[in-house]
Amino acid sequence: MKAVLLISHGSRFPETEQEVKGFVERLKKQSNIPIIEYAFLEIAHPSIPEGMDICVKKGASEVTVLLNFLNAGKHVDEDIPRIVEEASRKYAGVTFAITPPIGKHHGIVQLFLDMIENSGQ
């Protein structure tokens, strides 16, 4: 069974977790993916390992780690792949994949142009 685990950095601001939760709820409503969860790299909970545990406990056999990060960097290139590798060893029968950061998506320029165009409204 397919699962998506949206990964965000984490923040001490409670509004951040609420925004991520709301985004995940919108993803759930607009997709046919049976399991969509969220987790945070640091500060907030659930942590990435906890999020992966949740996905597997719900029956995931493949987990797509959806990066809510704009660009490459230490977290994207080192920290998160290390955590995913640890999960791969823990759950040998589960396949894990990591998406590229948002900034590499072909639609990012149009998204930013839309944001600029609507910034004065």
Give a verbal description of the structure.
The structure is a single chain. With 121 residues, this protein is of the alpha/beta class. It has a single domain (2-117), classed as Rossmann fold. The protein has helices at 14-30, 48-57, 74-90, 108-117; strands spanning 2-8, 35-40, 62-67, 95-98. It has a four-stranded parallel sheet with strand order 2-1-3-4, with helices on both faces. It starts with a strand and ends with a helix.
Notable characteristics:
45% helix, alpha/beta, 121 residues, single chain, 4-stranded parallel sheet, 4 strands, Rossmann fold, 4 helices
Can you summarize this structure?
With 121 residues, the chain is α/β, with parallel strands linked by helices. It has one domain: Rossmann fold (3-Layer(aba) Sandwich).
SSE blueprint:
Layout (H helix, E strand, L loop, with lengths): L1 E7 L5 H17 L4 E6 L7 H10 L4 E6 L6 H17 L4 E4 L9 H10 L4
Parallel strand pairs: 1-2, 1-3, 3-4
The total number of structural domains is 1
Structural class: alpha/beta
What is the architecture at the second tier of CATH?
Answer: 3-Layer(aba) Sandwich
CATH fold category name: Rossmann fold
Largest sheet, spatial ordering of strands: 2-1-3-4
Principal-axis shape: globular
The CATH C-level name is Alpha Beta
Topology pattern, helix = H, strand = E: EHEHEHEH
Biggest sheet overview: 4 strands, parallel
Number of helices: 4
Helix content: 40-55%
Mean pLDDT: 96
Number of strands: 4
Low-confidence stretches: none
Strand content: 15-25%
Distance between the termini: 42 Å
Write down the Rg.
15 Å
